[in-house]
Design a protein that fits this description.
- The structure is a single chain.
- By secondary structure, this protein is an alpha+beta fold.
- The termini are far apart.
- The chain is built from 10 helices and 6 strands.
- The protein has one domain (4-317).
Length: 320
């Protein structure tokens, strides 16, 4: 049974270009993690159906999943989004200035093109693997953190098998009835079932039993359970956007709507572990908004900046 302590926060906002929802759940911490490697380990479960994410970008006129393969972003646009190493201090900037610094557009996080080609995360830019996309998202989130000076080891985000699995279980519960017969419950609750519900966060606390978890996790991996953390649901990443920038609309639209101190923005900078699930809820439509369900857990690092809207904020005393 879902209690208030398992579903403390539910916020749904409309961001420019897409919806975002966020919730938090409590429980025991799980310290499994992964930092990535040149030959990365896959974290997105095999059960995640990415077929249309492979075909729709090409059908939409893009030549590859790398930044230069994005059809609507010119070389001049990318040049305007280069990063010169400046550390951006949100305590000393207006919300509009900070957005312009980090997201010159919702598809261009500052410096992300250079980061992509420095790491070359996709061996084949036409067919990136799930493992490569997972690792790219780790690199991209840590680049976001570098833009505000969060570069120390303890502030680097890590991939987590349970977070990736839980994100997918949440989407399966939200968009299908595949779990409903075995796991009945209250329609529209955090744990589901969900079909027919208007709760954007339905499925956020759904976790199948250990036997049903096994196929989604590496051999021998401990079972997953509720743990302290947060979940964000973003509909900005369109289904036909190449993988190198698909995630960025989830972040940039939310930054535009909330600013650095927004509740949905915070985990991108301050949570230790993450897991993503991308879901195409209209496979026949080449221009639909896909859903990014992001799970965050592990240590919540304190912000090194203060909100200038608060009377005791001293911007000159902030930063790494």
């Amino acid at each position: 049974m879902v209690t208030k302590s398992l579903f403390l926060l539910l916020i749904v906002i409309l961001a420019a270009g897409g919806m975002v929802a966020c919730s938090s759940d409590d429980g025991a911490n799980n310290n499994n993690g992964g930092n990535g490697a040149r030959d990365p380990e896959q974290y997105t479960p095999d059960q995640a159906n990415w077929d249309t994410f492979a075909t729709k970008p090409v059908e939409g006129g893009n030549t590859g999943h790398d930044p230069d393969g994005v059809g609507w972003i010119s070389a001049d646009d990318w040049a305007a989004a280069e990063w010169d190493g400046t550390i951006y201090n949100p305590s000393k900037m207006s919300p509009e200035e900070f957005v312009a610094a980090l997201c010159p557009s919702v598809d261009r996080v500052r410096g992300i093109r250079e980061v992509f080609y420095r790491h070359n995360p996709f061996a084949d830019v036409n067919n990136p693997t799930k493992a490569e996309v997972d690792e790219w998202h780790r690199i991209a989130i840590n680049h976001l953190r570098a833009l505000i000076g969060y570069t120390s080891d303890e502030r680097q985000v890590k991939k987590d098998h349970c977070m990736f699995a839980r994100a997918l279980w949440g989407d399966e519960r939200k968009f299908t009835d595949m779990w409903d017969a075995e796991y009945p419950g209250e329609l529209g609750s955090a744990a589901g079932p969900c079909l027919g519900s208007t709760n954007a966060h339905c499925g956020s606390t759904f976790i199948p039993n250990l036997e049903d978890q096994a196929d989604y996790l590496p051999d021998g991996h401990p079972g997953c359970s509720l743990e302290a953390g947060a979940e964000g649901v973003f509909s900005g990443p369109k289904s036909n956007i190449p993988w190198s920038i698909k995630w960025s609309r989830g972040f940039c639209n939310t930054l535009i709507a909330e600013g650095f101190w927004g509740g949905h923005v915070g985990p991108w900078f301050h949570r230790e572990k993450f897991g993503f699930s991308f879901w195409d809820n209209d496979p026949e439509n080449n221009n639909n908004n896909a859903v990014l369900r992001a799970k965050w857990s592990g240590e919540l690092m304190p912000s090194l900046y203060c909100n200038p809207a608060e009377p005791d904020c001293d911007p000159d005393a902030t930063g790494p």
